[in-house]
Amino acid sequence: MENFDWTSFTIKIAVKANIEDLYQAWATTGAIEKWFLSEADYQDTTGNKIDNNQLASLNDTYFWRWFLYAETESGKITEANGKNTFAFTFAGNCVVTVKLSEEHEHTVVTLTQSNIPTDDDSKRNIRLGCHNGWSFYLINLKSVYEGGLDLRNKDNRFKPMLNN
């Protein structure tokens, strides 16, 4: 594990969906709740809640909640070009950057989480835990946008499981 990068990771998935729809999947509350969250709120820089179908912008903030978990996440949009790049703070001071590119009739979603602290708790919970979480949610993004099947567990009788 000498050369293992504890400070960042990048994962990719190809989704047979158009780039505009996948950008909205990250940048609008209405779409992000279809594959990732039970509740999402984006607020503009004046603190007003953004409409469900309106794109979040640079310096907007978010509040996110997942099915079956009491934990929530809040942060700030650090990049939002309206086309193919969307980035936000996550898990403290980490930054998640999502880049979209078109390739062979697919949109490739490239997710990088960076600025991960290197203390033991962050190595376990952020570097390894977030990698596992993002891996599942990117697979669910693909499932929802290619076939309409949401793989998330929403039944509180079953936890913890791979799909929650």
Can you characterise this structure?
The chain is α+β, with helices and mostly antiparallel strands. It has a single domain (9-147), classed as Alpha-D-Glucose-1,6-Bisphosphate, Chain A, domain 4. Helix content is 27%, strand content 31%. Strands 1-7-6-5-4-3-2 form a seven-stranded antiparallel β-sheet. Strand 5 and strand 6 form a beta hairpin. The model has no long low-confidence stretch (mean pLDDT 97).
Q: What is the residue-mean pLDDT, rounded to a whole number? A: 97
**Outline type:** globular
- Tally of separate domains: 1
How do the strands line up in the largest sheet? Answer: 1-7-6-5-4-3-2
User: According to CATH, what is the class?
Assistant: Alpha Beta
H and E order: EHHEEEEEEH
Biggest sheet architecture: 7 strands, antiparallel
The Rg value, from CA coordinates, equals 15 Å
CATH superfamily: START domain
How many strand segments?
Answer: 7
Give the amount of beta strand, in percent.
25-35%
- By CATH, the architecture is named 2-Layer Sandwich
Helix content: 25-40%
> Count the helices. How many?
3
Span between termini: 28 Å
Low-confidence stretches: none
User: Could you please say which CATH topology applies here?
Assistant: Alpha-D-Glucose-1,6-Bisphosphate, Chain A, domain 4
- What structural class do you assign from the helix and strand content? alpha+beta
Layout of secondary structure:
Blueprint: E1 9-15, H1 19-27, H2 29-35, E2 39-43, E3 61-65, E4 72-80, E5 85-90, E6 94-103, E7 106-114, H3 120-147
Antiparallel strand pairs: 1-7, 2-3, 3-4, 4-5, 5-6, 6-7
Helix pairs in contact: 1-2
